[in-house]
Amino acid sequence: MCLATYEMENFEFLLGMNIWYDILFAVNSVSKIMQSKDMHIDVAIDHLRESTKEMAIEMDIEPKFSEKRKIHRKKHFYDIDSDEIAHSAEDFFRIDYFLYILNQSISSIESRFEQFLEYENMFGFLFDSNKFKTLREDELKKYYINLEKILSFEDHSDIDCLDLFSKLKLLKEILTNEINAPLKILNYIKR
After folding, report:
1. Source organism's superkingdom (predicted)?
2. Please, what's the b/e burial string for 83-112 (b: 16 or more CB within 10 A of its CB; e: otherwise)?
3. H runs (alpha helix) in 9-152
4. Among 60, 99, 107, 163, fewest CB within 10 Å belongs to which?
């Protein structure tokens, strides 16, 4: 019997494959939505926030990020080494495989969500053309100055905030209700 056949007849292998399939299916579905050309990142962020808050409330969990801290304990000579604790095969699989995958998935999702929040803080004023068109001039300036700081290194900047401000102020006045999606706006600017 070859190794592949032996592994495929192994219950732990099949369970692991099932877990990975479910995780990757969910991630792939969300990834396809996030990559669609008519996806609005501000809407996606709001949806993530709301659905996560609803889930937290249903589970009676406070809807906020908690600070993580590591607990270190001094090991004494009479302590049992964690490797010496006997676990059943199910406990071993749950602890060393399932919970590990779950922790990695949660960590990855948290880092992506934090990235989206960072993008929203930097470029959020550009995500929604309706919000963009309703910004007052002082709010618009504040966003551009912030963007210039973010895109600067030492005394060098990738953008001139006043030049960008004047161009986007003009764009704000030119945009119509028909030109509202990011792709439509880019095509309009390109023309």
Report:
1. Eukaryota
2. eeeeeeeeeebeeeeeeeeeeeeeeeeeee
3. 11-35, 41-58, 89-93, 99-127, 129-134, 137-150
4. 60
